[in-house]
Write a structure and sequence with these properties.
The longest helix has 24 residues, at 172-195. The strands form two sheets. Strands 4-3-6-5 form a four-stranded mixed beta sheet. A two-stranded parallel sheet has the order 1-2. It is globular and about 55 Å long. The chain has helices spanning 12-19, 34-54, 57-66, 76-87, 100-108, 132-139, 146-167, 172-195, 210-213, 216-224, 235-238, 258-273, 289-296, and strands at residues 90-94, 111-115, 198-199, 206-207, 229-232, 251-255. The chain has one domain: Phenylalanine Hydroxylase (Orthogonal Bundle). It is 52% helix and 8% strand. The chain has 13 helices and six strands.
Length: 299
């Protein structure tokens, strides 16, 4: 058959799924074009030396355990065949944006919402939208580590805690205000840890955040650039620190281990129950109505 391609923002299959309001989909592997596979091959080939130098050892072990083909877009079925026996996690194909509560609920159930499109071959350096390289090569190798996987599940629990807490607030206006602050705190925490986190290791500072692990330029920049401020991760700082997505991050946080990260997620939930996330500092990211409603009406 002639392939239409599954190129980011240029995939008729995805457009139809979105039109039909199908969030969770199957991966139509036969639709990947020659250019799609070449894009994956180019991304993988240039990232491999960067991973060897800057990625944390848990990631490197995960890449090996997943047996990813460096020359072709991965089949999620193949990925899950190696992933699920290790931690119970699975990559779950989605057609686009996943509202916040649904995303966190997936983590709670050891499912990772995964984009199936891939960036164009001439747009390898930066893409504001996630793609399958970011999700599978950036995120999923970390999901092979039991301690990291348990941290994601705990983070998913926090979303359920938030949804239950706001039910006790009488005024709808106050519910929205508190919920917006909580989601903002969770989004900042996720950004500065799961997406852009650094970790101590016996061999020095290493990368574990998927946004860095899937970025050719920023993975080296995060470790070596004098323009980056790096500080030990502190919960009160993480939840009050704004961020912007369209440039290299000037401020990054370092955790000691995945046990340290899990402890901070546990602390995040405790603070949530104590009301300490109800009024975090204003700023980015802005929380949209879709995310708010996903917490108020979880299905």
């Amino acid at each position: 058959m002639t392939s239409e391609g599954l190129t980011t923002t240029e995939a008729p299959f995805i457009e139809l799924a979105q039109k039909q309001h199908q969030l969770f989909i199957n991966q139509p592997y036969d639709l990947y074009s020659v250019e799609n596979h070449l894009a994956w091959k180019s991304l993988y080939a240039r990232m491999k030396p960067r991973w060897d130098e800057f990625a944390n050892p848990h990631f490197l072990k995960g890449i090996a355990n997943l047996c990813l083909d460096p020359n072709a877009v991965p089949s999620l079925a193949d990925v899950n065949r190696f992933l699920e026996p290790l931690t119970g996690f699975e990559a779950k194909a989605v057609s686009g944006y996943v509202p916040a509560f649904i995303f966190f609920d997936c983590l709670r159930n050891r499912q990772f919402p995964t984009t199936i499109t891939i960036r164009k071959s001439d747009k390898l350096d930066y893409l504001p939208e996630p793609d399958i390289f970011h999700d599978i090569a950036g995120h999923v190798p970390m999901h092979t580590d039991p301690a990291f996987a348990n941290t994601l599940v705990k983070f998913g629990d926090c979303a359920h805690t938030a949804a239950e807490l706001v039910k006790s607030i009488g005024s709808h206006k106050e519910q929205l205000k508190v919920l917006e602050s909580i989601i903002q705190a969770m989004a900042r925490f996720f950004w500065f840890t799961i997406e852009f986190g650094l970790m101590e290791s016996p061999d020095g500072l290493k990368v574990y955040g998927s946004g860095l692990l899937s970025s050719f330029g920023e993975i080296e920049h995060s470790i070596q650039s004098k323009d980056v401020q790096r500080f030990p991760a502190q919960l009160e700082w993480l939840i009050n620190q704004s961020f912007e997505i369209d440039h290299f991050q000037p401020l990054l946080f370092v955790v000691e281990s995945f046990d340290h990260l899990f402890t901070m997620v546990d602390q995040l939930e405790t603070w949530m129950k104590q009301g300490r996330l109800n009024n975090v500092a204003p700023g980015e990211p802005q929380i949209n109505e879709q995310d708010l409603m996903s917490f108020l009406s979880p299905s």
